[in-house]
Design a protein that fits this description.
The complex is a heterodimer.
Chain A (H helix, E strand, L loop, with lengths): L9 E2 L2 E2 L14 H12 L1 H15 L5 H25 L7 H4 L5 H42 L2 H10 L2 H20 L2 H27 L3 H12 L5 H10 L10 H7 L1 H7 L15 H31 L1 H11 L17 H9 L2 H35 L18 H20 L9 H22 L1 H4 L8 E2 L2 E2 H22 L8 H27 L4 H5 L6
Antiparallel strand pairs in A: 1-2, 3-4
Helix pairs in contact in A: 1-8, 1-13, 1-16, 2-12, 2-13, 2-14, 3-11, 3-12, 3-13, 3-20, 5-6, 5-7, 5-16, 5-17, 5-18, 5-21, 7-16, 7-17, 8-13, 8-16, 10-14, 15-16, 16-17, 18-20
Chain B lengths: L6 H15 L4 E4 H8 L4 H6 L7 E5 L4 H10 L3 E2 L1 H6 L4 E5 L6 E6 L1 E3 L3 E3 L13 H9 L6 H13 L2 E2 L8 E2 H8 L3 H17 L8 H20 L4 H9 L17
Parallel strand pairs in B: 2-5, 8-9
Antiparallel strand pairs in B: 1-2, 3-4, 4-5, 6-7
Helix pairs in contact in B: 6-7, 8-10, 9-10
Chain lengths: 544, 257
């Protein structure tokens, strides 16, 4: 339609507008962005990780302070990312950012690394839906109702082949949902987050109204005499677990990794930066709401969990169940003692168990299409810059969605799913988070100099005239984000449990970056054979 | 004086005709369609310096694959970034030789408000219907002078009737029916009819007699819209009014990727 500029007219005080073009409808409202980011944090996963790993792996860690530290650090990263999206409001994760300032091979390598990392966590979530969602739910329901069929179902789903098939079905469902268009995806997220929030609120209420004594009685009733509350604590202490007492800064920082890990999702709206209606406002609201709403829920879940279950018990039951206790016969729950399991025991009702479990499954589900879309959007952006096969950027004439990119993301996550189920070593590669955080940290470092290196782009942005201490706001925001990114990269590296960045695992992480470089140079040679110089694409100024 | 890019009209008509031969339904909308549908007042577009900038079509999404192939065979190149950004709801093509742009909107025109078009493509040719052309302008919250000019000429040349018997008549009954279920759209259309009315005296090229004719047609349309029974949803939304945004935001045209 029209693309002319028109002078403003006036008739008797009435006004007409300057409208340069027919415009474009963007699919994501501010509410959609808030839900997208909160879903990609996943309140359920956050509370579960903090309560399971916090006291057991990092005894003596002050969890509430750890949560606050993680929220503050993630806010600094979000600040930097918001300035990036203000300057380059495009979809594709960090790719549109770094590709306009860093050398092309490095830029592509970073984007490749983050895409692989987030697709890894997408597959991990599908694996978790089976292993910490459905399987424990059916197991506990079987115990609570005395139904052998439900217990058997839990047992069957725990068999590798059924875990794999179930996970693949979940991944295919996510792919199908994304194929139906982003509007439908955003609508589905509203439904899922409602279920998830309801389940979490029910869990918090159960914890609030369950006394320690009542929980002990319920726990002993459900799992005794094989595992009793006092026996779990005693066997863990005998096996080496001990609360160091006092304030241990190192333990607190490392435990905060389990709050930081999910909070990274609060900035995932950079994947859909070009599709957000209200631009910077939507990104700012979405990211900070993602961090602090989730932070409040993390805090509430943690405090109530500690109050109801007790620090020593949480530490002990996790310690024994995670295989940290040298004594293999140490008392433990029949399945991993995620908070949903313990809250279900506290609730003592099969209805509450289903509600809380579905809420937890809802939180895990929200990672899956969200992270899959992150990988897809990166692939589409690569395709348009010709650093990946052009087909990846094609919208299907039949399905009206980027079906090739969705298909590739689904295949990659299915392979990851297979590895999770059948290769034990793969399940220990949580250090992929470190890969993603390092990629983001470099992007934030690049952002500190962007206003000076690419002034022609920066000058056109909505934040061009905003200064802090005389410096461009982007320089300040990205510097703060860079500091936080470096801090948590080191924190994760030092954490032998969370990231376990040692030996072959570190090589795997390095391999992710190297394969990105290899892919770039292969594509570069291929494009050269077609007479195309892909370096030129990197010099394009983004269309505004 | 010939308007800038007058030759776009010939190209637009040629595209519709050639597409029709291949069984493809493409209907012109936008400024080009206004010129085609208002032959008696072409001098007004020229006098108001109403330039043509590109060619816009509406089409049935089920034919998107064939339409893309057809336009590519004519030498147009697809803007794949825009296709990806709109998830195939809209395609943009450009002739690399002369920069002529072709927008294809599938099934509907949905900027500030939704105008369904898929099942109305057979009602007129080579353009969309006069009533859809009017709605195309009246759905715009940030109306600009070009939109006002187009609307003035359209309403000068075409009467508004409740039940049209010819494509040259604006189907006021359809507009009233569409708006009776959507308060937001109703509000925007009324706001724009008021704007257009206030702008009538501003254009020297529109005589007093012509101005009166346009105003009477605006009033005909207002009456049809007001007389139409409103849905429950319309009434409930009306109670909220403009305290809540009543239209969809439109971002500047550009790529999401």
């Amino acid at each position: 339609m029209d693309t002319n500029t028109e002078a403003t007219g006036d008739s008797g005080g009435d006004r007409v507008f300057l409208r340069k073009a027919s415009g474009l409808i963007k699919s994501a409202s501010t509410t959609d962005v808030v839900i997208f980011n909160i879903g990609l944090v996943s309140i359920g996963i956050g509370i579960a990780g903090i309560l399971l790993y916090g006291p057991s792996v990092y005894p003596g860690a002050n969890l509430p302070i750890g949560i606050i530290v993680a929220c503050v650090a993630m806010s600094m990263i979000a600040f930097g990312m918001i300035t990036w999206t203000a300057v380059i409001p495009r979809s594709g994760g960090i790719y549109p950012f770094v590709s306009r300032i860093l050398p092309p091979p490095i830029a592509f390598m970073l984007s490749w690394a983050e895409a692989v990392a987030w697709l890894f966590f997408c597959a991990l979530a599908a694996f978790w839906i089976m292993t910490i969602g459905l399987i424990p739910m059916f197991t506990v329901l079987g115990i609570q109702t005395g139904s052998a069929a439900l217990t058997d179902l839990g047992t069957t789903l725990a068999e590798p082949i059924w875990t794999f098939i179930g996970g693949v079905v979940v991944l295919l469902l996510a792919g199908a949902l994304l194929s139906s268009g982003m509007r439908r995806y955003f609508l589905s997220q509203k439904v899922v987050i409602t279920i998830a929030f309801f389940g979490t609120l029910v869990m918090l209420v159960v914890l609030l109204f369950t006394s320690r004594e009542s929980f002990i009685a319920s726990f002993n009733d459900a799992f005794g005499p094989d595992a009793t509350y006092a026996g779990v604590i005693a066997s863990a202490k005998a096996g080496g677990w001990a609360d160091t007492g006092g304030f241990d800064f190192g333990q607190m920082m490392q435990a905060s990794n389990w709050a930081f890990l999910p909070l990274v999702g609060a900035a995932f709206s950079i994947a859909i930066g070009g599709e957000i209606k209200s631009g910077v406002k939507g990104q700012t609201t979405g990211m900070f709401a993602g961090i602090w709403v989730c932070g409040v829920f993390f805090m509430a879940g943690t405090l109530l969990g500690l109050n109801t279950f007790g620090y020593d018990f949480l530490g002990a039951v996790g310690y024994n169940s995670l295989g940290l206790n040298a004594d293999a016969a140490a008392m433990a729950t029949p399945v991993v003692p995620w908070v949903t399991l313990l809250a279900s025991v506290a609730g003592g009702s099969s209805v509450l168990t289903v509600v809380m479990s579905l809420g937890f499954i809802g939180w895990i589900w929200m990672w899956i299409p969200g992270m899959q879309s992150y990988g897809e959007r990166a692939m589409i952006a690569w395709a348009f810059d010709r650093v990946a096969p052009s087909k990846l950027g094609t919208v299907s004439d039949r399905f009206h969605s980027p079906i090739v990119a969705i298909g590739v993301a689904t295949v990659v996550t299915t392979i990851f799913m297979y590895l999770f189920v059948y290769v034990t070593y793969f399940g220990t590669l949580v250090l992929f988070l470190l890969v993603g955080v390092v990629a983001w940290t470099i992007a934030l470092a690049a952002g500190t100099v962007f206003p000076f290196k690419r002034p022609e782009i920066y000058a056109k942005s909505s934040i061009a005239n905003r200064k802090v201490l005389g410096l461009p706001i982007m320089t300040v925001g990205c510097f703060l984000g860079f500091i936080a990114g470096v801090g948590y990269s080191i924190n994760l590296y030092l954490d032998e449990f969370a990231a376990n960045a040692r030996g072959s695992r570190l090589l795997v992480a390095a391999g992710v970056f190297v394969t990105g470089l290899l892919f770039f140079y292969i594509m570069k040679m291929y494009r050269r054979s077609q007479g195309v110089d892909i370096n030129l694409a990197f010099k394009e100024i983004p269309i505004e | 004086m010939l308007v800038e890019n007058e030759h776009f009209v010939a190209e637009g008509l040629s595209i519709v005709e050639d597409a029709q031969e291949q069984g493809l339904k493409l209907r012109i909308l936008g400024s080009l369609a206004y010129r085609i549908h208002c032959p008696a007042n072409l001098q007004m577009f020229d006098a108001m310096e109403r330039a043509l900038t590109d060619i816009d079509f509406s089409a049935d999404r089920r034919q998107s694959r064939e339409i893309k192939k057809f336009l590519v065979q004519r030498g147009y190149e697809e803007d794949r970034r825009l296709t990806a950004s709109t998830e195939g709801k809209r395609y943009y093509f450009e002739d690399p030789n002369n920069g002529l742009g072709v927008d294809v909107f599938y099934n509907e025109l949905f900027f500030c408000h939704k105008i369904p078009l898929r099942d109305r493509l057979d009602l007129d040719s080579p353009t969309i219907t006069t009533c859809d052309l009017l709605l195309e302008k009246m759905q715009i919250v940030e109306l600009n002078l070009k939109d006002v000019k187009d609307t003035l000429v359209l309403m000068l040349e075409h009467p508004v009737v409740e039940k049209p018997t010819s494509p040259e008549e604006i189907d006021g009954g359809y507009i009233a029916d569409l708006l009776s279920g959507d308060w937001g759209f109703y509000y925007t259309v009324n706001m724009n009819l008021d704007r257009v009315e206030r702008f009538i005296p501003d254009f020297d090229v529109v005589s007093a007699e012509q101005g009166d004719l346009i105003l009477s047609r605006i009033n005909d349309l207002r009456k049809l819209i007001e007389d139409a029974p409103k849905s429950r949803k319309w009434k409930m939304r009306a109670k909220v009014g403009t305290k809540k945004q009543w239209y969809q935001d439109v971002a500047p045209k550009g790529s999401a990727f």
